[in-house]
Amino acid sequence: MQTETKARVDQLTSPAGHPVAVLRFEGDIASTSKDAVLGTYQALPKEATKLVLLDFTKVDYINSSGIALVIQMLIEAANSNQKVYAFGLSAHFTKVFTMVGITKYAGLFPGQSEALAAL
Amino acid sequence: MPKRLIGVCIGVRKFLRWVLRKLCMLFPMHHRRTATLWIALVYLIAACVPQSRAQAPAATGIRYHFGDDVRWADPNFDDSAWPSAPDGRWPAPSSDSKSMVWIRVRLPVLSSDPLAVRISQQSSFLIADEVFVNGVSVGRQGELPPRGVPLAFARDAVLDLPPDLAERGTNAVVTLRAWYPPGVRPQAGATAVFAIDESRNLHLALRADRSAAWIKAGPDLALNSFILLLGIGLLAFWRGAGGRDLLICSWMLIATSLMPLWGASVSLGLIPAPSWAYTLGYVGLQALSMAATVELVWTVHGLRALALKRLYKASWAICNAAFLTLSLAVHPSPIVFWSQVAMLPALTCFDSIQLLVNLWALIARRANRLFAVAMIVIPVTDLLQNFGHLHSVHIGPFDETYFGLSLFLCEFALFAMLGQRAWAGWRARDELRVEFDAAREVQQRLVSPAGDVPGFRIESVYAPATRVGGDFFRVLPGADGGVLVVVGDVSGKGLKAAMTVSAMIGALRTMPALPPARILVALNRGLVGQIQDGFVTCCVAQIGRDGTVTLVNAGHLSPYKAGVEMSVAAGLPLGIDPHAEYEERQFTLDLDESLTFVSDGVVEARNSTGELFGFDRTQAMSGAGAEALAQAAIDFGQDDDITVLTVTRRTEDWGTEAPLCPAASVPA
Fold this sequence. Notes:
The complex is a heterodimer.
Chain A: E1 6-13, E2 19-29, H1 34-42, E3 51-62, H2 64-79, E4 83-87, H3 91-99, E5 106-109, H4 112-118
Parallel strand pairs in A: 2-3, 3-4, 4-5
Antiparallel strand pairs in A: 1-2
Chain B: H1 2-24, H2 32-48, E1 63-66, E2 89-90, E3 100-108, E4 115-121, E5 128-133, E6 136-141, E7 157-160, E8 171-179, E9 190-198, H3 199-241, H4 244-267, H5 275-301, H6 306-328, H7 334-364, H8 369-386, E10 392-395, E11 398-401, H9 402-446, E12 456-463, E13 471-477, E14 483-490, H10 494-509, H11 516-527, E15 536-543, E16 548-554, E17 560-561, E18 564-565, E19 585-588, E20 594-598, H12 600-603, H13 614-621, H14 626-637, E21 642-649, E22 664-665
Antiparallel strand pairs in B: 1-3, 2-9, 3-8, 4-7, 4-9, 5-6, 5-8, 10-11, 12-21, 13-14, 13-22, 14-15, 15-16, 16-19, 17-18, 17-20, 20-21
């Protein structure tokens, strides 16, 4: 039932002209998604990447282990002084992310344009 | 049955090892594996030495001619210009002669009527023929061109002659009109034994020879039946033990043993299959056997070399396609020509890849050395056979090819190795299953199902997704007549989560008198650094005797009161941030009102289309009771541990002071 997690990185520019790394996830996010989630994030150059967007538009399901991975990533990002916004979450997972306190580390937005504008 | 079979095979393997060890003592060396390789080498060299064997005397005076002309059946036809076959062997006809050859021989008639002619053809190739005696057609096998339907095997036949066709004391002219399909012409030529005698004598001789053929094929049939049984046993064992290598090996053993059994069944006349059915069956089994070999080598050695595997598969495909084309072709064509050209290189490529990969594994995959040795012998003997350097071993009346013998030894070794490995794995898993059952029992004892507390009715359902779960809850009566409710979820499932649950329950026993926020802070500090790559969500509610609820949450789902989701301050799950703080919220639970706690396994239950049970359904059913809500989520599609706990404030005569002993808790 669980589908493999895929991740890719796109480079955008914020309205203020700063480079933005967009991590686009696809499939289910679970304990087996460590390489796709943390691996992809950790491959970003820390010094050059200060603005990060997380795209969950094509994510179908995130279980508790998957949420743990996202939180780990957000804590690493906070420790590296990176600003992270997430978008594309369904109403269900927006609520779950809010409950587990992810909003303390990352703003949640409905779409890419809103997230990009807020950076 | 499979257990007993594997036990027997392990015993036989031990015996062979003992024999091998004794053999090794003959060598001036102590290293057993080196000695094994030496023995394998000596075996292969012995296989290349031809063994002399008395052959049946061939008929003399045989003359042959390529082409097709029915006048050549005439006894008065002058065949003196035809080439003679001094050793009784005539070459295969070329496609220029329509793949037809005529053979004439004169046989003295020493008996009286009723007479018969017997022709025993020493060929295992596809053939159709017609026999004439003194110019009269006395029988045919298969159908000659233009239709061209060959028999799968040239049969040994006795054909009764009409009365007065041949007189005693004269010479009868026996003529064989034979057709060999263009794809499978016998390159080394063909031969036959011709005889004319009393019909009864020849039929008796034929019956005796057929019995001898059964005896001769006996060892081969027995060995392959044994391997077939091993394959079926391994397949049955795989159903219980699992393992891709076991499954592939069982299919390889089944297909490889069925091939010669199928061939023997048709050639001995046990199954009257037409040539096309024989060919399809044989090529299908051969393709399955070779494909299983490819997969087995790649699986056991854990290889990723995709380009090499594609080449391996390509040679497999070409080899089998060419073999099928050549076996089914009736007329010469470019496809037949190219199939003949491609067949041997493809087979050589297939064997070479298998040989090289296993030679590499001998060095790089120490744990698979014995498997590699077994898999090396097969392509080496096949290559030797294909290039004509491999011979048969003759023991008494029995014939066995070295290739068949090598295949049997290797297949047996493969079965014993993989069977023993799977058996050890199965036993290890069985022990683990026992450990899991023990862990589940401990978890059940540690946290028993919640029961009512004076002033509160408690209802709980816990359905773990695996044997042991990562959800937990605890209901502790307070000294003031209230109750402390703790519901949580360890991220992940299985034994690791269950061990964390046990630690949580143990820690909670020491802190029932603390305010809810301090309970979470204490639990959080205890968990930080202890849960690798995970966390624990937890919701704590202290419900006073007067219905005042103090609620604090660490990433868990909010509880529902009378069908309404309660607003709680978001908090990080436990075990992530050592400095995390948790904010308490207060509200009142009226008499007969219920507070329903759920774990994420409820809202994230998924059906077959991936749809979630969701918050809306959960909220709508939150007042239906723990049993109904949990069952609805399970029926929808359980994906994770499911916990539902309801606490209902009751109007009850409090009586004496409430008991201080723990009244309730978790998972069943």
